[in-house]
Amino acid sequence: MTNRTTVGIIGGGRMGAAIAQIFASAGHSVLLVEPTEAVRDTIPKRLADIAKARGQDTSVAGHVRVLHEITADLAACTFITEAAPEKLELKQEIFNRLDAVCGPDTILATNTSVIPVTEIGARTRHRGRVVGTHYWNPPYAVRLVEVVETPHTSEKAIASTMTLMREIGQQPVHVKRDVPGFIGNRLQHALKREAIALVQSGVCDAETVDFVIRNSFGARLGIMGTLEQSDLVGLNLTLDIHKVILADLDCSKAPQKLLVDLVAAGKTGATAGEGFRKWTPEERAELQGRLDKALLQKGAAVG
Ligand SMILES: NC(=O)c1ccc[n+]([C@@H]2O[C@H](COP(=O)([O-])OP(=O)(O)OC[C@H]3O[C@@H](n4cnc5c(N)ncnc54)[C@H](O)[C@@H]3O)[C@@H](O)[C@H]2O)c1
Description:
The protein is of the alpha/beta class. The protein has helices spanning 14-25, 37-53, 88-101, 117-120, 155-167, 184-200, 206-215, 217-221, 226-233, 235-245, 257-264, 281-302; strands at residues 6-10, 29-33, 64-67, 79-82, 107-110, 130-134, 144-148, 171-175. It has an eight-stranded mixed beta sheet with strand order 3-2-1-4-5-6-7-8, sandwiched between helices. Helix 1 packs across helix 2 (37-53). The longest helix is centred in the C-terminal third of the chain and has 22 residues, at 281-302. Nicotinamide-adenine-dinucleotide is lined by residues 10-16, 33-36, 39, 83-86, 90, 94, 111-113, 135-137. Nicotinamide-adenine-dinucleotide (NAD) binds at residues 10-16, 33-36, 39, 83-86, 90, 94, 111-113, 135-137.
């Protein structure tokens, strides 16, 4: 795959528009499909805002053409990323439509967070060109992309996708087996399950969980991975610790009661004013602003 090709993005929401901006700023022509008019109307401003946040020229948005639906225009694309809502049937339908419109060499990627890529591509005719490209939010600041291989994905599709991700400035890692949640979300939600269990069982409140994370092992995580940490202190210590602690860790196989009850009560988080803790609009804006600034600085430093 050569640089400066035409690429497609399906879904112009939070992730789709940001991914479109990344491709456009790397010199690609982008076809961005967004069926909802109210969302389409916001795309030019969101593309401009991302360019400004990245210190780039806002004219890059001129390389993004917005379509209302999947049309034969997508046949020009060498690479298409689906970033529609996280619903299996919807994603399968999109892949079927793309499969019909595009030639067999167009790579079809999904940005699903946790759905197995194999299931999303199950009904396509050319399953060798189906891959996962799991970006993180915001993708121009958190550069990692998990490139997911299914049992059907061709070596060529994986190699081309890894190369393309590097060319547009992202940091690809190859996920060699298509497990739900890939690598990052499995780790993130294993931690979240235990965090919820600690609050639910009365060990501490939600603020304390997050304070401990930020100020203990979380302080090290940006510098040193969890397996490096075990190597550094010696694996015999990790083994001794696991002999005591593993049997006691939460292993719920379904969403925990605390989370289910909060959502049922409308306490869905910062936007609602309450989730695991209470939020004012100012607290929410302050945390979001601080996070965006820090991630952008880190993303820029990565290169
Ligand atoms: N938000 C995140 O932090 C994040 C991070 C990584 C991956 N993801 C994944 O990316 C995908 C998109 O998430 P998002 O946060 O951008 O959602 P979003 O709701 O902001 O955007 C989805 C967009 O898809 C559009 N859409 C609906 N039906 C469509 C169709 N048939 N064809 C094309 N577009 C359609 C919607 O109008 C909406 O604008 C999901 O699979 C999600 O799990 C999200």
